[in-house]
Design goal:
The complex is a heterodimer of chains A (728) and B (154). Chain A is built from 17 helices and 30 strands. Chain A is α+β, with helices and mostly antiparallel strands and 728 residues long. Chain A folds into three domains: 200 residues, Aldehyde Oxidoreductase, domain 4; 160 residues, Aldehyde oxidase/xanthine dehydrogenase, molybdopterin binding domain (Aldehyde Oxidoreductase, domain 4); 218 residues, Aldehyde oxidase/xanthine dehydrogenase, molybdopterin binding domain (Aldehyde Oxidoreductase, domain 4, 2-Layer Sandwich). Chain A has a seven-stranded mixed β-sheet with strand order 13-14-11-21-18-19-20, sandwiched between helices. By secondary structure, chain B is an alpha+beta fold. Classes of the chains: A alpha+beta (728), B alpha+beta (154). Chains A and B meet through helix 4, helix 6 and helix 15 of A and helix 1, helix 3, helix 4, helix 5 and helix 6 of B. The complex binds FE2/S2 (inorganic) cluster (FES) (2 copies). The site of one FE2/S2 (inorganic) cluster (FES) has 12 residues of chain B, from loops.
Chain lengths: 728, 154
């Protein structure tokens, strides 16, 4: 039995007949406190009409992670619905979603966070449908089941959901419902096909860049090439001569006071087509004031990092004291993980229509909430006058969490009093990205006279303080003393969330250093990790948060051990093939734990190596859709391998030195290794898969390269000269 | 500006654009057909792939003036109803993640199978390496092309 959080649910009659259920999910702070829901008129979340058609309202963003299929699968299973009767309706942003789990998509949390509420909602409606049928048949609802959108009696009588919907809508929401046993699932755990596929293969994908509004004009912006540089003046004489150009307008400094937000100053060309706007912007003559970033580059940045002053973050025991004790040895190493671009296949875009007293925006976004806030500021309109239509994205990976293109488009629409479609060129998308921040990880360890690692130090120097990588729960291994420190050095480009955010940065140093320590102690890297994972987790502090941390750490400990043991049981960690090197690394992203084993061979290519195979073992609780799950891990591997082979944004005099796919190389089909994904069997709730495949890949690769060559590379990307120059 | 007649998916379209306008932008902004995607504009990603007289080309880099009298097929014209073997295979293997690159992938794959009805992995790599997929659906694309080859033969 499970008590329904009745205050999360509301059932009413559907206009025109049928049943409508509204759901309100708690806010993000619900991890610590029970969120009090006072009003939740979120409109229909789940409708069942009298014909039995079921409509599921998707409030989450679809950007390739499959949430538009995974979420309805969960509710369909609890209901006992016929999958073919389900249609998806995409919701516009609604202010009622603010600070709820419904309005923003990110952190690989969609399925994890919606799992329980959706199951409860589905189960509640199922029980109401059963009660409606029970009343008709005059039997107890407990004797009834649901299957394929029918309520079924023990003697085989059947009533379709649609026939019962109206009667069910008049009943009370049950206080207690029993969630289905995993063995009763028909869809969860099966490779149900993605609901977007049919449209996609016909060329009907519903992306922001395809928006077409009556009377719209096309915009392209030439932005200041240096971060935070200023527009001084411009000459648009030549630009205006290009056919189709309607206007040229400056984009001034827009002070938005929104956390993490930046809009570059620039000059916008408005034209009758994207091509005219692209062509004309090249004819602009612009004078910029580059400011202090105009003299910075990666080399000076590295120097600033070396000289940075560290701030204390966390300590357990006295690391410094232990490090100088007689007979104890201190070892250290430093790893660099550079700036990375998103390079999303669909370039950034937004379409806005400012109407004088209201504004509509069409955009693929991870956060309608942030778009609405930003457009409010850019247009000066109150929130209720702003409509955000959320389109699908051609990839997002954190980038479309930021509403910068909506700010630009709504600003231009206001200036021009016309609907404006703004398309960033590929060059814009790479040069003016919200880059994954540069991070240098400085690690130290103390080795006792008995050959045990007793102390661990992490000093993280980076361009953005994500507050990640420094806390006790981010160090799964046990040491007598721990010390972490950090330092933030303002970057020379704007930064933002990039698939897996902090863990990608911190895993590189942590998991390479673990490998170095294992080999130094003549231990097998997998066994060494298992050994260092043994320990008792104790509560540090007395507040609620400390309790949450303990339970979180326990889940992680169990999952790390389960993943490594699964690798052993399946015989996946054996000596490499002749002529190959093999490396392993393991990391968690939120509650999901993922290990990769990478097989490499050395060659004379640009990179000096080839990845032949990646074997992944993942513990994410229940795998809702194994086809999507596998796809996310494959995607995470390919994503991280692109960074490890070709990533790292060069910056010279403040200007990003890459601007398209010829220099910002990404992995292609012929470079993609065989990827073999295993899931640890589990009936625990699902814990997200969009990002966990990324962080352990780069350290596993560097560990494999060491295994192959005896040379330790402590940075990505890796090129042939790095392998040639590295010392043993 | 000049007038051009383009044959797209078997129909003639009259458009008035600059002579250097790439086919991609004519298809998208003038003809309002949005299945063909913009990805890079410099023939590096394949998102804009269409067939010109049966050959896959990057429409972002071909100016309209060179396309007079040619037979252009876009994703919208590959089949009326998604029944082209490559589309069927794409659905069967359920290839797309975000889907943005997939129309370009499908157009390149369809042209490959016209040339080589039953390609090896090596031949698939060679034909498909001009098409980027940031979501990393490459393993599935490869599988789907083998599947499409089977469907085509049966
Ligand atoms: S848009 Fe044409 S190849 Fe990229
Ligand atoms: S499916 Fe997203 S880019 Fe290929």
């Amino acid at each position: 039995m499970m008590t329904t959080r009745r205050n999360f649910l509301k059932v009413s009659a559907l206009a025109g007949g049928g049943l409508a259920m509204a759901v309100s999910l708690p806010g993000t702070s619900a991890m610590l406190a029970n969120d009090d829901i006072s009003s939740f008129d979120l409109g229909a979340f789940l409708n069942i009409d009298t014909k039995g058609n079921i409509t599921f309202l998707l409030t989450k963003h679809e950007m390739g992670q499959g949430s538009g299929t995974g979420l309805p699968m969960i509710i369909a299973d609890e209901l006992g619905a016929d999958w073919s009767k389900i249609t998806l309706k995409r919701s516009d942003y609604d202010p009622k979603f603010d600070s709820r789990l419904m309005g923003t998509t990110g952190g690989s949390g969609t399925v994890a966070k919606m799992w329980e509420p959706l199951r409860e909602a589905g189960a509640a409606v199922r029980e109401m449908l059963k009660s409606a049928a029970a009343a008709r048949w005059n039997v107890s609802p407990d004797t009834l089941t649901t299957d394929n959108s029918f309520v079924v009696s023990p003697n085989g009588e059947k009533l379709e959901f649609g026939e019962l919907a109206e009667e069910a809508a008049r009943l009370n929401i049950p206080k207690e419902v029993k969630l289905k046993d995993i063995s009763e699932f028909k869809y969860i755990g099966k490779p149900v096909k993605n609901l977007i596929t049919n449209d996609v293969v016909m060329g009907k994908g519903n992306y922001g860049i395809n928006v077409d509004i009556e009377g719209m004009v096309y915009a392209a912006i030439q932005r200041c090439p240096v971060y935070k540089g200023k527009l001084v003046s411009f000459d648009d004489t030549e630009a205006r001569k290009v056919n189709g150009v309607i206007d040229v307008v400056p984009v001034p400094h827009l002070d938005l006071d929104l956390e993490g937000q930046y809009v570059a100053e620039g000059v916008a060309v408005i034209a009758t087509s994207t091509w005219s706007a692209f062509k004309a912007r090249k004819q602009l003559k612009i004078e910029w004031d580059y400011g202090k970033n105009g003299s910075r580059d990666i080399e000076t940045y590295k120097k600033e990092m070396s000289e940075s002053k560290m701030q204390h973050a966390y300590s357990k025991g006295d690391f410094d004291k232990q490090s100088v004790e007689e007979g104890f040895e201190l070892v250290e190493a430093e790893y660099d993980n550079p700036y990375e671009a998103h390079a999303l296949m669909e370039p950034i875009n937004a379409t806005a229509h400012f109407n004088g007293d209201s504004c509509e925006v069409w955009v693929g976004t991870q956060s309608g909430e942030r778009v609405a806030q930003a457009v409010m500021k850019a247009t000066g309109l109150p929130q209720e006058k702003i409509t955000v239509h959320v389109l699908n994205s051609g990839g997002s990976f954190g980038r479309r969490y930021y509403p910068d293109s909506s700010i630009e488009a709504s600003y231009l629409s206001k200036v021009l009093s016309k609907p404006v479609k703004l398309t960033w060129s590929r060059e814009d998308e790479i040069m003016h990205d919200y880059f994954h921040p540069y991070q240098r990880s400085r690690h130290k360890a103390i080795i006792s006279p008995e050959g045990k690692v007793t102390g661990w130090y992490a000093g993280l120097i980076r361009a953005e303080d994500y507050m990640e990588g420094l806390t006790r729960w981010e160090i799964p291994y046990f040491f007598d003393t721990i010390k972490t420190e950090s330092s933030v050095i303002e970057g020379m480009v704007h930064v933002g969330a990039w698939r897996s955010v902090g863990p990608h940065s911190s895993s590189l140093g942590k998991e390479c250093f673990m490998d170095e320590l294992a080999l130094r102690l003549n231990k097998d890297p997998l066994d060494f990790r298992l050994e260092m994972l043994q320990g008792e987790i104790t509560q540090e502090g007395n507040d609620d948060f400390a309790k949450v941390v303990v339970s979180y750490r326990k889940v992680l400990q169990e999952r790390y051990i389960a993943v490594l043991n699964t690798i052993k049981e399946k015989g996946l960690w054996t000596a490499p093939k002749k002529g190959e090197g093999r490396g392993i690394a393991i990391e968690n992203f939120s509650r999901t734990v993922c290990a990769h084993i990478v097989d490499v061979s050395i060659d004379n290519s640009y990179n000096g190596f080839k990845v032949n195979k990646v074997t992944s073992v993942v513990h994410c609780g229940t795998v809702v859709n194994p086809h999507f799950g596998r796809g996310q891990i494959e995607g995470g591997v390919i994503w991280a391998l692109s960074a490890a082979m070709y990533g790292g944004i060069e910056v010279k005099n403040g200007v990003v030195q890459r601007d398209n796919f010829h220099d910002n190389l990404l992995l292609r089909i012929d470079e993609t290794p065989e990827i073999d994904v295993h899931f640890v069997e589990s009936t625990e709730p699902p814990s997200g898969l969009g990002e966990p495949g990324t962080p352990p890949l780069a350290p596993a690769l560097l560990n494999a390269l060491y295994n192959a060559t005896g040379k330790r590379i402590r940075k990505i990307p890796v090129r042939r000269e790095d392998l040639l120059n590295a010392t043993a | 500006m000049a007038n051009y007649t383009l044959t797209v998916n078997g129909k003639d379209h009259h458009v008035e654009v600059d002579r250097d306008t790439p086919l991609l932008w004519v298809i998208r902004d003038t003809m309002k057909m949005y299945g063909t995607k913009y990805g890079c504009g410099i023939a590096q990603c394949g998102a804009c792939t269409v067939h010109v007289d049966g050959t896959p080309i990057r429409s972002c880099c071909v100016p309209i003036e060179k396309l007079q009298g040619k037979n252009i097929i876009t994703i919208e014209g590959l089949s009326q109803d998604g029944s082209h073997p490559v589309q069927m295979a794409w659905k069967e293997i359920d290839v797309p993640q975000c889907g943005y690159c997939q129309t370009g992938q499908i157009m390149t794959a369809a042209a490959l199978l016209e040339r080589i009805p039953s390609p090896t992995d090596e031949e698939i790599n060679r034909a498909m390496k001009g098409n980027l997929c940031r979501c990393g659906t490459y393993p599935r694309i490869k599988k789907a092309i083998h599947e499409a080859a089977k469907l085509k033969q049966s």
